Amino acid sequence: MAKFNVPLILRGKVIEDADIEFGGRRGGSSFTSADVREHLDELPLSTPSALRDLHQLKFDDIADFLQEVGTRLSFRHNAYLQEAYELSVTTSGLSPQILKVIYETLGQGFGRSVVHQTADKSIGIPYLDGWVGMKLETGGHAWTRAFGARAVHIIAGNVPNVAAMSIMRNAVIRSDMIVKTPSNDPLTAAAVARTMIDMAPDHPITKHLSVVYWKGGDTRVEEALYTPAHVDKIVAWGGLASITHISKYIQPGIDLITLDPKLSSTIIGKEAFASDATMREVAGRAAVDIGHRNQEACHNARVVYIQTGTDKEGLTKANRFAQYLYDSIQALPPHISGPAVAPDPALAEEVDALKMSIGYYEVVGGGPTGAVIVSQIDEPVDFARLLGNRVANLVPFDSLETPIRSTNAYTQTIGIYPDSLRMELRDRLALHGAQRLVSLGYAGRFANIGPHDGIEPLRRMCKWIVDEEYRPESVALASMT
Amino acid sequence: MDKPTAPQRDVDLLGRHPERYPDLTVTQQYSIPYETVMDIQLTVLKKRFDTLVHKVPVLAKLAESQRIGAINDIHDAAPLLFPHSIYKSYPLSLLEKSRFDLLTKWLGTLTSVDLSAVDVSGCVGIDGWLDAMDSQTELRIKHSSGTTGKLSFVPRTLAETEATAKGWRRSFEGFGDEPHANALAGFEDLQVLLVGYRKGALAYPRMMDAAVHWLYGDDEGKVIASNPGRMSADVLSLGGRLKAAQDKGELGQLQVSPALLARRAAFVEEQKAAPQRLKAFFDDIVQRYRGRRVIIVGSPPAVYDLAIEARKAGLTDLFTPDTLASIGGGAKGRVFEEDYKKVICRFIGMEEYPLDGFGMSEMCLGSSRMCLLGNIHPLPNLIPFLLDHKTGVLLPREGTQTGRYGWFDLAIQTHWGGLLSGDRVTMTWDEPCACGRAGPVIHSEIRRFTEIEGNDDKITCAGAMDAHDKALEFIARQLG
Amino acid sequence: MAQYHVPLIIRGRIVDDADVEFGGRRGGASFTAPDVKKHTDAIPLGTPSSLSDLYELNFDDILDYLGELHQRMAFGRNPYLQEAFELALSTSGLTEPLLRRTYQMMRDCFEPNFAREFADSSIGIPYLEGWVQKRMGNGAMASIRAIGARAVHVVAGNSPLVSSMTVMRNAVLRSDAIIKTPSNDPLTAAACARTMIDMAPDHPITKHLSVGYWKGGDSSFEDVLYQPKNIEKIIAWGGFASITHIAKYIQPGIDLITLDPKLSSSIIGKAAFQDERTMADAAQRMAIDIGSNNQEACLNARVAYIESGTDEDGLAKANRFGEMVYAALQSLPPALSTPVRRVEPQLAEEIHSLKMMSDEHRVIGGGNNGAVIVSQTSEPVDFARILTNRVANLVPVDDLEIPVRSVTAYTQTIGIYPDELKAKLRDRLAFHGAQRFVSLGYAARMSYAGPHDGLEPLRRMCKWIIEEEYDPAETPLPSKSYAEFAVTDA
Amino acid sequence: MQDHETNAYLRRPALSTEELTAAPEKFLDLTITEMHSIPNGTLQELHTRALSEHFTAMVERVPVLALLAEEQHVREISDIAQAGPLLLSHSVYKSYPLSVLENGRFDRLTRWLDKLTAHDLSALDASACGSIDEWIDFLDANTDIRVKHSSGTTGKLSFVPRSISEMDTVAKGFMRFFEGFGDEPDAHLTGFESLPIIHAGYRHGAMGQARLLDAVTRYFHGGDDSWVTTSNPGRLSADVLSLGGRIKGAEQRGELGKLKLAPGLLARRDAFEKEQAQTEERTRAFFHDVATRLRGRRVVISGTVPQLVDLAEEGGKHGVMGAFAPDSLVHIAGGSKGRVLPDGYREQIVQFIGIDAYPRLGYGMTEMVNATHRACPLDHYHFRPNIVPFIIDPQTGEQRPRKGTQTGRFGFVDLAVKTHWGGFLTGDQVTLSFGDTPCGCGRTGAHVDPAIRRYSETEGGDDKITCAGAPDAHNRALDFITRVAE
């Protein structure tokens, strides 16, 4: 059984004691780590004023720094990344091949163009670099600036990109960041941090990044940390899994930003079934949205609504499409998708049962390679929330009302075919709770423009401060009016 | 001590009527040489397959896909074990839309009993449907407590419940010269105190029905329950339906009928009266049965709550030390602030908390207690299987193996008795237990695979929020 | 004692039963209201798609609507507002002239130009009107839109304007609002709603406003309402009182936006003490920040740090400045500030105790006219958090580090004198938690544009939806390209 | 009835009017029957004269009273009503800056206290004290003052400068609590000095309960502490209490990080941790004692409601029920202390102790020398004659007429106070009937209706939401101390 040590990184300082052992998931690997409770005093930022150094940087300094980090995050040359990769292989639901690609491309997330787009499109670089002035209709002048904050990020571990992206974003908004790593990816964030330390140990960005693992819910750590005295913002991925620990600390002075877990789906209009050729092509695109990254991410399609109709002929089409879809999923290249690494027994049981049950569901495939379940009624399976391991559920329908009204607050991405249908449905889907609409086949490709999960996380991570100036000669004092 | 060997006629009889096993004492059952037991098992297995493969469509489908035409060896049955979720493989929306005709049709694919003639039109709710089935067919459907949200329906028949009743009786009996060897002396005269609902189609009420019918000559007086009312299947299924409704977005919401919510409200109301009801029940049994030998039946949380009543009243040792207790099921996710076993013992007046048992509600005749050495011994009417939980391949039936536990219950006659559990079990096949019982041994540490794979501070961005309904969660905890 | 009735308004429908009686604060007015529990099913907007009627309006329709509402909200002619005013007289901390003025200016936030500037500067009208396209680096043609949401607003009652602002915001965001009114202002929001009903009973904007009173924390009702299937956003004013019992409803699908209680202060640099004239000017400005609306709002100054120094001479200056501030407070125009009806007893006692017992504080004035407490050390009084009724605490310091370090997450506005000092301190003050800086004397002049409380509540009240279109011709499918990658993957 | 009682007083004129005027604390030497049989007229007379003497004695020596009297233009007291404006609210007793505690400036605190007491503290140098507890010990050792402090939920403790000279009165008053009137069953209380005393809580410290136990052992048992058994023989530290409140405050202001601990306090951190560790052991020992030595005996048992509820619950766990004799004397003080009590808690307590019924409630406040007065059979509270009651209008501060039945803010002058000004203004809203409208139970003198509310309750907590002000949070004192340990 592989053994790893997860370092505790406190603003440039690396602590490699192995005080505590944590069992990894899937009985796979376990890891040791330093006991945060021994370092509680150093964990929070001493005083908010210490954010000053970050705010003296210009955006270009930050972009240069990140660019350099990106270069150094080259998988082949970066031992930390390699270690993180090895650990992930034992804890992640992703196959080694997929993980490899992710780690090989991790550095790209720090590239200048990405960084610039993130800062510019979501917030506006001038607001980050300084005070932006405006003349007030009511008289007087106002300046606004987006300040960094003291933030704790409880990140998700199902894909390593989350760790990398969070760190990049945080540097852009000049916040002091404490990353609370998840047990399913305890090393990636640390790898990035150590790369920074090797590169520029005293750079403010390095000095404002801490990476810590503790068991979520450890009150000794959380009670000490989660108070307005130490933290302005808590960014929590993973919904209840993390919120349940946090909500009792929510109080005036702490701003909770939740990036809730989501599920994604697909809507395929009748055009797709015009010819056998289009059916195969569309199946190919749907397969990507489903199988990409082994369906581990929230943007992966799970339930696929198909406008085949529910009459006999419709069902025949649907079942044929299922076969095409299954084949296309199986045909995905190994660096994109592969057989289940961490099969979910509960799901497997359900699928097996449907496979032999009679009347309502047809199942193509099954077992670790994945499956396509075709509902023979216009409803998803009751265990839709469990879908994963490359198991998709095709739901035939007659009226577009069915997929529209099945969208809810937990729907993130909806892949749609054809694009014309997307234009037709987007407003209503949005009203029902969908947060991202995308051409079929591209669910896994994020434009990273700002909005995410229906909110603007980056803007929220900032503190927006206003400075108003009035002169009695232009705006009379209230006592004079 | 010398074991009574089973006379040949018994072997033949059991080959024809394995459901008669409980006619034998526990000592007798476990003393039959295991070779003999396995002979009986194979005989019955063949017969069951040959008859049911033509009458149970799902079995036929499975057998076909596995290309199995006949059973020549116990091994052959391994690929034919049903995952237990097969008994809830219906779309939940059937309940929502009250399509009980379709639900019946679905159930029909799982049993040899012909349901084509049954008229379930106009059934109100699942409860209505269950009543209809009770009155129109020989089925006595048993459903799960639906802690997962969706109820499973097992098509048991009235005839099959005879073995259930007798098996329950035997479950109090010890082996050989173990302390409880003579526990059944005077059994028929003992008053049964049921802590929980008397009516309904859950395991406990159904078992009480069976006991009253087969053991007590339909004398309902033999059982008094803390709640003489009915545990409604509709209420139990609510949690699951609300969850499913939420998954389905607005469509789902539109499906949640006001009637449904009304029912929930009514039930929650009723639950409010639970403490008083329990108190009344307690006062009653104290007054009538204090100091007597009785049979106490209930889930740990239920019995524990009763014990707390006793503590409030400052009473201990309410019954005789040889009182029989059947406290099945786990803690149902309920966390006890102290050792509940001690509390319960003090209240009843037992030195020892009854040994834990192992069994599943899908079994007709299967629940047996640990031996004094803490091992579990599958009853002779159960054919145990261990499968590799990843590949599903049958593990060798020898040595000590760990895998996913499956079983075939010979006592089940009208539906396929083979089931695959979600439990990880370690079995030793060929070293009989020092307790003297013949046959393979199941080690006591048993875990559900879902727990083992379970989330450990893992944070992911993929998933949806559970519709959680505190009232219903509470109920789920109360049920055995 | 006056008896009032507070209606329950559900999307244009007025429920007038008087099921329950609630006792008002200060032993003031008590009122009756319908029992919301009887309307549990009607209060939430059935399904999110019912917002679609709002999307048949364009922004100008909304402005027109607000324009007419602006007319009808004229205090003199609006009986509903007058009733709300009557009730407020006994529940509010504001005196009659101040309340009257507040209700007179309430209509201003509906004035179309104001609403437009407001929407445009905080969100951008195009995003509200439709999908805004952007070509992205990764090949996507992305479109973004800010969509309205189903929201519950738990509003504050210390100023009636909170209610009217909420109504306006909800209209421009095309959202569905359920306003939970506070016991200290249960009628203002209802007055707006009733005016809208008289004006245009079937207009979508009228149809997406509900107003009700229930006792905050009544879980038998809130358990049902605060569910993702009913609402997407909770906007909660006020501190622990409202937040603690709302926090337990935080769950995926519900976005909690808290507008926390805040306190404001002032920093006066040594420049103010260079000569009598400057001191008088600073004192005048100080008095305005303290006294406007009788110090009922979060933006009123309570503690003022003054760089007079703490040596004997410094304290002398501080005490003289105290006298000046007190004098200026007394001479504020009645439309801006008046003697209070009654000093909070607890505060009165604290002040009296200091007067009798403390060598370390100097108390100027007292009673209904307000007071200025001059600390004789560099520490604010222990009861600084309950300062109100025109009572301020001047804290002399030698070193500006003290005010900077005294700023916390609960600091909202800091009035600073002179402006140069403001420019010098603003960054560090911001790090420590201050959210708004303003020239001394203008704290009460809220420019509604831009952020509030360090966050952007208006942006948060929207759902931000993104749409991405890709063309396989330009952007090959991931399955075709090896080094496909996604920057954000979640 | 009335004259039977009058006779009771006349029959045994234990003390002359002169004696009582000169030393009103002697009221406590009378039995309840006697003291509550004093005709109203006589009582008014006594009050007027004693009050005037108390004022003259104190106005010279207590600076704050002098200041107040001057502010209110009161030179002497010839009529009870004149004392109305001279009642000190409890904020006076905590009007020192909190920073004094944070920075351990106990010299300044002593100077502050000097203004409240008749004792002259000017020569006293407390600058060496490192913590509140040390300061209290210092005063105990070097003066006659026995400071009594509040629980200080805000972190700011109020300090009332009691003295040795009041201690015996405290003890007697405690005994009188259990005594009935006239022909009420418990009218003739005997053998008090032979009863073991059990207290659910800390033995030591400077809060009411601990100080009371000091007084009782001193007066009834010649200082022999073995008569007292407490669930916690340790000390309730003033520092921990104060810190608890300050942490709460600091959390409210998001300033936990800035919270300063007095150096002396940090030094005692380990001691506190031990305290914590021992609690369980001590409880076990306590219950062992209760279950063996004290089991079934007639005892005096006292504690606050939460303390006794905990006790009963613990008792349940340790299998102790009906622990004492049914005729034990039970003193249950205070309200729920803001804690939510389990329903049926009264039964719990009754069952645990083994009495037939939950004892009648008491009313009073730690600022009174006799902190509690047990309700009469009609559930009214009767103050002992050393208390001169006042009713003040909460809004205007005007005094209500001293006759008939009045509702308002309750104030009093406690004539049994010898070394500081006995005038105090509470935060309670009470309905009080002055002596001219006596209670049906036969007791003479003023009595109070059981419906008593704190103004803080009648005011806030009323779903009022404002955007100004700061939030509330909870108390983790010892955790905090141990945390800064790391």
Any descriptors?
heterotetramer, C: 490 residues, alpha/beta, 7-stranded mixed β-sheet, globular, D: 486 residues, 2 domains, 4-stranded parallel β-sheet, disordered C terminus
Describe this structure in words.
The complex is a heterotetramer of chains A (481), B (480), C (490) and D (486). In chain A, strand 2 (8-10) and strand 3 form a beta hairpin. Chain A has 17 helices and 20 strands. Chain A has a 7-stranded mixed β-sheet. By secondary structure, chain A is an alpha/beta fold. Chain A is globular, with a radius of gyration of 25 Å. Chain B is of the alpha/beta class and 480 residues long. Among the domains of chain B are: 1-79 and 371-445, no CATH class; 160-231 and 273-354, Rossmann fold. Chain B contains 17 helices and 14 strands. In chain B, the strands form 4 sheets. In chain B, strands 1, 10, 11, 12, 13 and 14 form a 6-stranded mixed β-sheet that branches. Chain B has a 4-stranded parallel β-sheet with strand order 5-4-6-7, with helices on both faces. Chain B starts with 7 loop residues before the first helix and ends with a helix. With 490 residues, chain C is an alpha/beta fold. Helix content of chain C is 34%, strand content 20%. Chain C has 16 helices and 20 strands. Chain C has helices at 59-72, 79-91, 96-105, 112-122, 125-129, 161-172, 188-199, 204-207, 219-225, 240-247, 276-291, 312-330, 345-357, 401-406, 419-432, 457-460, and strands spanning 3-5, 8-10, 13-15, 20-22, 30-33, 132-135, 141-147, 150-154, 176-180, 209-212, 233-237, 255-259, 263-268, 301-306, 361-365, 371-375, 391-396, 411-417, 436-439, 463-469. In chain C, helix 1 packs across helix 4 and helix 2 (79-91) runs antiparallel to helix 3 (96-105). Chain D is α/β, with parallel strands linked by helices and 486 residues long. In chain D, helix 9 crosses helix 10 (208-221) and helix 13 packs across helix 17 (477-485). Chain D is globular. Residues 1-13, 458-462 and 466-486 of chain D have low confidence and may be disordered. Classes of the chains: A alpha/beta (481), B alpha/beta (480), C alpha/beta (490), D alpha/beta (486). Chains in contact: A-B, A-C, A-D, B-C, C-D. At the C-D interface, helix 10 and helix 13 of C face helix 5 and helix 16 of D.
